[in-house]
Amino acid sequence: MRAQKKYPEQLNLSDFLDKSLLILDDDDPLRGRLSRAMEKKGFEVKEAKSVAEGLQMVKNSPPAFAVVDLRLEDGNGLDVVKELSKNRKDPRIVMLTGYGNLPTAVAAVKAGAIDYIAKPVDADDIEAALLASSGSKAKPPENPMSADRVKWEHIHRVFELCNRNVSETARRLKMHRRTLQRILSKRSPR
Questions:
Q1: 105 and 59: one domain?
Q2: Within this chain, do residues 169 and 96 fall inside the same structural domain, yes or no?
Q3: pLDDT at 35 (0 to 100)
Q4: Residue 118 β-bridge partners
Q5: Is 29 found in the same domain as 80?
Q6: Less Cβ around it within 10 Å: N or C end of the chain?
Q7: Are residues 65 and 92 in the same domain?
């Protein structure tokens, strides 16, 4: 079943001579799944999992399209977006993040990204963003995550980044340790 178009005006991949796509994400399963799906859609995919690796690929042969994670183990994906914008005229870049907020979205667009998508994301959403005609606005999502789910995802992400240390996570989230333990013990909301 094909998802409804996210953008009212879409270009076709066949409109582009260069179909090279860089997928830069340090989440191995996500990167692999996206790579396979985007290859099936006709893109010529190259994968990278670090800022250093992404910068090297961009300098050697800048791709026409890029999907770049904002936060990587060795730095910030915005560095790769800026470098790609310097090395190629009109690249079509989509930023991915587990932390959707306005300041980073603005920074991504200023650096050269055409869209900013919060994780979890699927290949249809990425394809729609990469091929959206300039100036077309995205439609609101049909089935967005609930506010409770976004909160739950954020808490679990911080918990993982704190090496599953409850005390450290509670301190960083400015919440009581027992409250955090109750949240962590529950299943994810829908």
A1: yes
A2: no
A3: 94
A4: 97
A5: yes
A6: N
A7: yes
**Which pLDDT score, from 0 to 100, does residue 129 have?**
87
Tokens for 126, please give them.
């990425």
Residue ranges, the chain, pLDDT below 70: 1-9, 99-103, 134-145, 188, 190
Q: Determine, yes or no, domain membership for 135.
A: no
Please count the other Cβ atoms lying within 10 Å of the Cβ belonging to residue 88: 19
Residue ending a domain, among 101, 130, 159, is 130
- Beta carbons of 110 and 96 less than 8 angstroms apart: no
Q: Is residue 23 part of a domain?
A: yes
DSSP string, the chain: -PPPPSSSSB--GGG-S--EEEEE-S-HHHHHHHHHHHHHTT-EEEEE-SHHHHHHHHHHS--SEEEEESEETTEETHHHHHHHHHHSSS-EEEEEESS--HHHHHHHHHHT-SEEEESS--HHHHHHHHTBPTTPPPPPPSSPPPHHHHHHHHHHHHHHHTTT-HHHHHHHHT--HHHHHHHHHSPPP-
Is the pTM higher than 0.85? Answer: no
**Which pair of structure tokens corresponds to residue 144?**
């967005």
Tell me the angle at which helices 78-87 and 102-111 cross, rounded to the nearest 10 degrees. Answer: 20
